[in-house]
């Protein structure tokens, strides 16, 4: 047995039959020594009832194996763990150099306020010689963990007490309490495996630096200054342990991580951003921070092209490396769940990991849907949907970061719901959606934040006056579009009469126009024309285009709903789809964007691009095969064919390892076949209306023919093709029912269910 794993090889034949070896293990994995040998720092042979050294020294009567030798040093009553709103002084957040080799007094490796009280004297005598045969670390004194029920609303089981007992002077009971969980061998072993990725310090530092270089210091939610502080203190205090991967020291570091994660973060209104960051790294390192480091490294590796020189320099292979980082982040999240961690850091980890999962597996995967759902659950369980200032003494920077989290969580949930055609899991009707201030991180994370100076640099709506589009600018703008998209979803998925749909649609349109009119001028100019304010800034250009697609995407979804439920014409739908496709083609031509935002570009092609291209392709096919029905063509034939050809080629360039590859690949094939149908010679008269020939044509030639019957719908309650309000004549030969995209995901479902062999060569 490996001694480092807590075991020890013992020759039982060398022990007299009337003597027994003590098999009780200490927390460090070593066999417990008797009190005289322990105090004298002498080697003990661990024999019961008295060790040989004590017999030789004549102190066999004092040879006792105490189960808790340090218990007598703590005679004061154990204080309850602080809550996240507990006040603290600056000394508790000071930078004192410690590591697993030199633990601080009161640290989890020496003494912990979370340990249970010492046993009574009678119990000490009864268990003085108790032997434990269980493996080491299984017998650790069980640590306390918070059991936090989270936010409890007006109809919760506690509401009757909170509303009435206070009137009679009855003190409200505490809803969060402590529960013991063991730090088992399995948890320690899994933790050691997780920490192995931090062995290569150069790789970790350079990938994190590259990530924030690409997004200009504005990550999904984790800011660059805080992440760099975490890395610096982690490597300062535990760099040697992580580099050497010594099993004994790694085990001790894992214990430290577990106990820190079980403790709440402590801050007050005067806590600065850097003080808050230091409270989660160095001697206070937590599993949330380890998971965030892995998630950001994985995002960086996944957003670059596989041929990028940066990946080759570090011998990183996609998609293996991002998957490894995703596994690390998932394991850290599991550790946090075991510790009942429900705080800002866990919320950050859940959000960053959800983004990584989405870029790897695609927005349509159940794993992505599940991960994004956990972010929604955490936001609601923390009560941030009602008030981001949960608890007292919340620092200004943390209030703004919580607002960013809330806005991104809601906007992302509505976007996913519209893409999948599912009800949203979060609704603005039950949330207090307060937008964050458009403040750069350099100001927000200063040691002495001047709120008056920050507010003076913003306009009346909290936007910056410099005219730059930052990630926070994009968040604030999208917060206005997301509720309107939720209203469109309600119309599309709900049960309304035609009159109700028309009335609500007009209300949605008016609210959208009013919101757009109230935005700053440098944002309103994105409504028309090319995104050109930042030609040399790929990140800002992506944000600007995202703002444009926000309101245009709402218009497209609303028009599709009107066509399906009220029989509206398709003119406005086609015009909106044309504008969206032009934007997608324009931004996809920029090599500086495609080279560093590969996953973002693939997602944009799969969602906004494919949605609009499908509308245009079917409209063009209708113009070709129904000239009498399309006297005033909405689309110019030559240019539309060229644009669809370029778009299909863009879809075909998506990396197979990308999460959006399956959708893009099928979209490329079907658009190519529609173009082939348009450009191929017309069918011979004898083929029209012959069912057996149609069947042979489908099986033998692999051509895409589509029946377009009036009011015919596809799967999932699809809606009829725009403008087709009368029965078709016998001269139309189209063999596949097209679900004209009642939901964003219907197109993919149709492609998967169609009888056409998409793998068959074209021609």
What key attributes describe this structure?
two-stranded antiparallel ribbon; zinc ion binding; elongated; DNA-binding transcription factor activity, RNA polymerase II-specific; mainly alpha; single chain; two-stranded antiparallel sheet; disordered C terminus; 50% helix; nucleus; 763 residues
Quick take:
The protein is mainly α and 763 residues long. Helices cover 50% and strands 2% of the residues.
Provide structural commentary.
The chain is mainly α. Among the domains are: 143-181, no CATH class; 604-753, no CATH class. Helix content is 50%, strand content 2%. It has 28 helices and four strands. The strands form two sheets. Strands 1-2 form a two-stranded antiparallel ribbon. Helix 22 (571-588) crosses helix 24 (598-625). The N and C termini lie far apart (67 Å). The relative contact order is 0.06. The model is unreliable at 1-17, 72-98, 102-145, 684-745 and 747-763 (pLDDT under 50). Residues 33-65 form the Zn(2)-C6 fungal-type domain. This is Uu.00g050540.m01.CDS01. It is found in: Nucleus. Pfam families: Fungal_trans, Zn_clus.
């Amino acid at each position: 047995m490996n001694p480092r794993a807590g075991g020890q090889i013992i020759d039982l034949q060398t022990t007299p039959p009337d003597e027994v070896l003590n098999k009780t293990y200490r927390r460090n994995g070593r066999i417990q020594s008797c009190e005289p040998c322990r105090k004298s720092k002498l080697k003990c042979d661990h024999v019961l009832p008295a060790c040989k050294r004590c017999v030789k020294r004549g102190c066999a009567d004092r040879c006792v194996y105490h189960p808790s030798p340090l218990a007598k040093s703590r005679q004061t009553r154990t204080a309850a763990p602080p809550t996240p709103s507990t006040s603290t002084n600056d000394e508790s957040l000071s930078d004192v150099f410690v590591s697993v080799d030199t633990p601080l007094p009161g640290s989890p490796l020496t003494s912990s306020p979370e340990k249970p009280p010492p046993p009574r004297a009678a119990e000490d005598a009864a268990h003085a010689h108790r032997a434990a045969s269980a493996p080491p670390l299984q017998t650790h004194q069980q640590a306390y963990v918070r059991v936090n029920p989270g936010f409890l609303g007006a109809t919760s089981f506690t509401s009757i007490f909170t509303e009435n007992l206070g009137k009679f002077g009855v003190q409200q009971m505490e809803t969060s309490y402590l529960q013991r969980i063991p730090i088992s061998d399995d948890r320690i072993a899994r933790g050691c495996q997780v920490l192995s990725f931090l062995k290569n310090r150069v790789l970790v530092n350079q990938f994190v630096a590259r990530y924030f270089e690409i997004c200009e210091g504005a990550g999904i939610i984790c800011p660059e200054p805080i992440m760099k502080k975490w890395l610096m203190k982690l490597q300062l205090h535990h760099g040697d342990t992580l580099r050497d991967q010594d099993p004994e020291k790694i085990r001790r570091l894992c214990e430290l991580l577990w106990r820190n994660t079980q403790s709440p973060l402590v801050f007050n209104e005067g806590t600065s951003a850097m003080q808050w960051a230091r409270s989660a790294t160095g001697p206070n390192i937590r599993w949330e921070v380890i998971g965030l480091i892995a998630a950001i490294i994985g995002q960086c590796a996944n957003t670059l092209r596989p041929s990028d020189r940066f990946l080759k320099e570090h011998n990183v292979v996609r998609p293996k490396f991002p998957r490894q980082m995703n596994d690390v982040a998932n394991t850290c999240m599991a550790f946090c769940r075991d510790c009942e961690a429900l705080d800002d850091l866990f919320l950050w980890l859940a959000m960053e990991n959800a983004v990584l999962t989405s870029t790897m597996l695609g927005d349509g995967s159940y794993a992505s849907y599940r991960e994004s759902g956990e972010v929604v659950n955490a936001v609601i369980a923390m009560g941030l949907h009602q008030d981001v200032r949960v608890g007292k003494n919340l620092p200004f920077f943390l209030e703004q970061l919580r607002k960013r989290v809330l806005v991104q969580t809601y906007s992302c949930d509505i976007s996913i719901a519209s893409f999948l055609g599912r009800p949203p899991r979060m609704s603005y009707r039950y949330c207090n959606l307060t937008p964050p201030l458009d403040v750069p991180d350099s100001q927000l994370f200063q040691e002495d934040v001047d709120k008056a100076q920050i507010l003076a640099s913003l306009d009346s709506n909290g936007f910056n006056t410099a005219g730059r589009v930052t990630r926070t600018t994009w968040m604030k703008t999208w917060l206005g579009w997301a509720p309107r998209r939720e209203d469109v979803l309600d119309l599309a998925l709900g049960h309304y009469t035609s009159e109700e749909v028309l009335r609500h649609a007009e209300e949605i349109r008016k609210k959208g126009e009013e919101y757009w009119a109230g935005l700053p001028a440098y944002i309103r100019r994105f409504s028309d024309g090319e995104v050109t304010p930042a030609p040399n800034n790929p990140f800002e250009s992506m944000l600007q285009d995202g703002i444009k697609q926000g309101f245009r995407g709402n218009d497209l979804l609303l028009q599709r709903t009107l066509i399906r439920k009220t029989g509206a014409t398709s003119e406005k739908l086609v015009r909106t789809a044309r504008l969206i496709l032009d934007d997608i083609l324009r931004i996809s031509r920029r090599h500086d964007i495609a080279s560093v935002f590969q996953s973002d570009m693939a997602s944009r092609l799969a969602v906004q691009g494919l949605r609009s291209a499908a509308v245009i392709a079917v409209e063009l096919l209708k113009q070709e095969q129904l000239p009498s029905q399309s006297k005033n063509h909405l689309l110019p034939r030559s240019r539309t064919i060229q644009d669809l050809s370029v778009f299909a080629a863009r879809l075909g360039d998506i990396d197979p390892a990308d999460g959006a590859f399956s959708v893009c690949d099928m979209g490329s094939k079907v658009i190519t076949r529609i173009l082939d149908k348009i450009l191929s010679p017309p069918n011979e008269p004898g083929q029209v209306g012959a069912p057996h020939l149609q069947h042979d044509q489908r099986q033998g030639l692999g051509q895409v023919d589509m029946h377009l019957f009036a009011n015919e719908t596809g799967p999932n309650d699809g809606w009829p093709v725009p403008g087709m309000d009368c029965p078709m004549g016998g001269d139309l030969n189209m063999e596949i029912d097209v679900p004209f995209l009642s939901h964003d995901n219907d197109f993919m479902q149709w492609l998967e269910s169609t009888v056409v062999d998409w793998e068959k060569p074209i021609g």
